[in-house]
Every structure is written in structure tokens, then in C-alpha cells.
Amino acid sequence: MTSPGLPPPPFNLSDLIDRNRPRFRTATEFVEAAMREAILSGVLPGGLPLRQEELAAAFGVSRMPVREALRQLEARALVEFHPHRGAVVVEISAQDAADISAIRAALEPAALRLSLPHLTADDLALAADLIAEMDAEADPGRMGELNRRFHMTLYARAGRPRLLALTEQHLAAADRYLRFQFAALGHHPRSQDEHNALLAACRDGDTNRACTLVTRHILAAEELLTRFLTVRAAHSG
Amino acid sequence: MTSPGLPPPPFNLSDLIDRNRPRFRTATEFVEAAMREAILSGVLPGGLPLRQEELAAAFGVSRMPVREALRQLEARALVEFHPHRGAVVVEISAQDAADISAIRAALEPAALRLSLPHLTADDLALAADLIAEMDAEADPGRMGELNRRFHMTLYARAGRPRLLALTEQHLAAADRYLRFQFAALGHHPRSQDEHNALLAACRDGDTNRACTLVTRHILAAEELLTRFLTVRAAHSG
DNA sequence: CTTGGATAAATTGGATCCAATATCCACGCA
DNA sequence: TGCGTGGATATTGGATCCAATTTATCCAAG
């Protein structure tokens, strides 16, 4: 697959590739989605220089779809371009984590407030299932996915496509951090309690309470994360 | 400039081009910025198909930087790609306006809350100047720019780059709509009253009141806009 | 031994070329 | 006359090629 003369790249995308290739209609779409996943899930760590030729070889395409994908990821603040020096995966940092949390804390209560009155019994049942699945899940990657789906299920009826897309985007961005925390500290049981309380408030139709709970949930996660990242930075720096 | 055999494109970008060209280091950056401006300011109206060849000729570059720019604009929800059929400027609609307003109403109070305690006397003076400039301004385009700068001045000390970038992006997106309203209804004096009240609350350091005022300010603009767009759609549809 | 500069290698940015796909229109047939 | 089929045309998607810029290397001079 990879060109014979090149040294092996410092990442492994092989499983992402073959599995998803047929789902997309253009190579650019495919590369963009795969790289987004890879960055958010930590396969491509922050600071990694992204050589176009290398990625093209890994994906089995030419440099062009890679370049277009990188431009899209730039607009999503997942990679940075340095003119004539190439693209780099954006670094994670305590400040950036706080930044993303602030955005989540602004968007998610707004989405929930719009969505909650229109939630169906099916939605609530699905949310409950997702909590249960999270209880049983050990893999950090799957865990982030389930958490994301739980939250988005509660917001889904907001009827605001842009708001929902932004919310999902920043939930995914937060995953990049939560994954660290989860790997280091293990699953935090308080988070599940918060999920249950939130779901209960939604069942009761208590919008104000539910919004307060998501806000607290997000800020609690942020505080834990900030502390974790700060000591981590102190150790390595 | 334009190739001799082609029919003239249905838009005019010439003033944007020469003026800004030297500021950018790569053609892609330049094209992206110019097209973003052109879409947000209404020069490229919603629904317009964006022919790559045509744009390339207009900008005096090849199709490739145009393609990269279009991909970035896609990620910012300013254009839509239809595989093998090309890109189109996203349509405006009452729903989309409401969507953007909901996002603004979530983000801006959050940014203001973080920023307000750190606002300096200079910041407040600048904000006051911008209100005065708006009073004297007649051009809708300049008006949107001043409005944007006024708001961003108040949020600037939030110390959250991502949050601020998102906020500015959606303020700009809202301009696309406010411009319509302004052109049709003329300048709405209540908006200036709201700006003054907001600035006063900031001067007093009354965070809660200031946040309430921005929220109301955004929702008031949204209501007016929704009504305007709805009757407009009824007339033309 | 360090430092400066020239030169070579690597990599990106941009242009051109080719292939794949969609649209449009004419034509034939029911 | 209406509809479906088929080919021509236009336009995008992808690959390759060339130029411009940056980074690395090496040698010489202080």
C-alpha cells in the first residue's frame, strides 16, 4: 500500500481507511472525515506535522484531496497552516480545553432549552439506553462516542441545524481532552450520576433544572480536566 | 483580465481584488478572504452557483486555490458542495436567521460575562466612538462592520480565542441578514438605544444586567428580522 | 570551535492535464 | 404527444508537473 521507498509514517490509519472508504463519494470527503476522526480520537496527536505526500500514500490518493481536506480541517480549527512549511495538528492545552468548555457551556443549555419540550418517549428511552451502554463500556474511544450521542439525543429536537452542528463539533472537540482524562483517571462515576439526573429532569419536562444541570455537568468536567492538564503540563514542562 | 471568450460573470469582484491582493501570502488565503467578504456582504447572493473556472479568471489565479478556498467556506457553512455539480452560495432563510440568532444569543452573553470585568477605559471609549460612528453612517455595509466591531470590542477581553472567533463568525453571518433589513427598513433607532444601554451597564460593571441586555438586543433584532423575512418570502413565493 | 553564508534537498503552493460524472438536448418509440 | 434512451457537452474531481519557498547541510572564515 505504502510506497516502498518511504519510511513508515509515525501513525497508523489503516483500520480507519478500508472500512470507511466506500461510504464516501469523493476522495476529499473521505480523507476529511477520516482525518477528523483520527485527530479527535488522538491517533494523530497534537503537534504532529502533516506531510501531504505521506498522508496521500497512506490514503491511497494523490496530494490534492489531502490538501482540500486539510483546508477544511483548518476552518474547523483542527489543524494549522504555516505558509510554505505545512500543516500541523493543533496542540491541546489547558487554555484550549477551557475555551471549548466555555463554548459548550454556552451552546448546550441553549440547544437543550429549545429541544426539551419536543423530546419524545423514544428519545428519552434512547438516552437511557446510552447511559446504560456507557456503564458497560471500557474503551475510551467508544466511551466518547456514546457520551456524544447521549448529549446530542437530548438536543436533537431543537430544530436548529446550525446550532446542533456547532454543538456536536465542540462535543467532539471536547472528546479529544476527555479521552486523556478517562485514560488516566478511569471512568468518573459522578459523570454518570449527572447524566441520570439530567435525563430525569428532561423526563419531568423541567427545562430550567435540566439546563442548570447540563451547565454544571460541563463545568464540572472542565474543572477536573483543567486540573489534570495543568499538573500534566507541569510534569512534562 | 477576464478571458476574452467567456461571458461576463453575474457578479463584480473587481474592487475587492486589487485592493487586498498584496496583503496575503498565498493565493488560497486571498481568495478565501475575498469570497467570504463577498458572500457576507451580499455581493455573491444566496443560491448563486460558483463556477470554479469563472472565479479563477475573476481572481487571476488557477482553479486550485479557488477549490481550496471553497472547501474552507464549506466548513464555515457559507457554501454547499454538491458532488460533481459544483458549489453554491448557501441560501438565506428565516429559519437560518433564527438559527444564527440562537447561536449569537448563546455565545455573546457568555463572551461578555468573561470579558466585562477586564474591560479598560480605552475599550469603553472605543465602544462609545463606534456608537457615534454608527449614528452618522448611512452605508449598510459599513454599518454592519461598525456594529460588529462595537460588539467585539465589548467581548475582546474574554481571553478565549475560540469563543471569540466563533462569536465574530456568527456576528458576520448575521450581517448577511441585517443588511437586508437595514436596506429595506432604514436604520432602526431602537438598536442604538440598546447599544447605549448596554455600554452603560458595562461602564457600571453590572455584568448580569449587561448580559440580559445583549440577549434582549439579539432577540429583538431576530424578531424584527424574522417578521421581515417571512413577509418577504410570502411575497416572492 | 563557533558562526556565517552558499548551496542542495525537501516540501509546499500553484498550474495544467486527464478522467469521471452530471446535465442537456435530440431522437426514436409507444 | 409524451416519455425514455443515448450521445454530446460542460464542469467537477483527481493526478501529475513545475515553480517558489523554506530548511538542512556543508564548508570556510574568524
Could you characterize what this model shows?
Two copies of one chain form a homodimer. Chain A folds into two domains: 76 residues, Winged helix-like DNA-binding domain superfamily/Winged helix DNA-binding domain (Arc Repressor Mutant, subunit A); 143 residues, GntR ligand-binding domain-like (Four Helix Bundle (Hemerythrin (Met), subunit A)). The first copy, chain A, has ten helices and three strands. Helix content of chain A is 70%, strand content 4%. The first copy, chain A, has 237 residues and is mainly α. The structure holds a DNA duplex (30 and 30 nucleotides).
Question: What separation lies between the terminal Cα atoms of chain A?
Answer: 38 Å
Biggest sheet of chain A, strands in spatial order?
A: 1-3-2
Low-confidence stretches of chain A: 1-6
| Count of beta strands of chain A | 3
Detail the topology: elements first, then pairings.
Two copies of one chain form a homodimer.
Chain A: H1 14-20, H2 27-40, E1 49-50, H3 52-59, H4 63-75, E2 79-82, E3 86-89, H5 94-115, H6 121-136, H7 140-155, H8 161-185, H9 189-203, H10 207-236
Antiparallel strand pairs in A: 1-3, 2-3
The structure holds a DNA duplex (30 and 30 nucleotides).
Keywords, separated by commas or semicolons:
Four Helix Bundle (Hemerythrin (Met), subunit A); homodimer; 70% helix; mainly alpha; 3-stranded antiparallel beta sheet; 4% strand; 237 residues; Arc Repressor Mutant, subunit A; disordered N terminus; 2 domains; DNA-binding
